[in-house]
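Continuing the series of single-chain predictions for the mutant panel. This is the parent chain; the variants come on the following pages.
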Amino acid sequence: MKLFFFFYFFGFGVFAYFLVPQKSKAQSITNGSLIYNDFCYRCHGVNGVGRDNLIPPLKSSDYLLKNINLSIAGLKYGLKGEIIVNGKVYDGYMAYQGLDNEEIADVMNYILNQWGNNYEGFIDASQVENIPKSIFEK
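Parent structure:
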């Protein structure tokens, strides 16, 4: 009888998973633009260019495009210390914003596909979830 219930609920879970529509990249980018406008634009700017020597750009950022998991970790845990963006050293602090994994994925998809950035991949909540804080120690 226990085996019956196990397979019944397992089967129902698998079936329900496929009934729930998965978010498209376009929808993620749209959602990400709203999050960016709520949390990010004050520092990084409407056009993603950052601020002089204080805030690094997101537009055409070599750091962002070459270090996607580190960039995700910066949103997930906050970021402090030195990073090099487009050959320029930035030594600042970005506070943890309180975003959940889905919101981080959406804003990353937005940033990675705006202002001339072009990322063919798709960031999802499970990728964000699997990035540990220890990634900064490498």
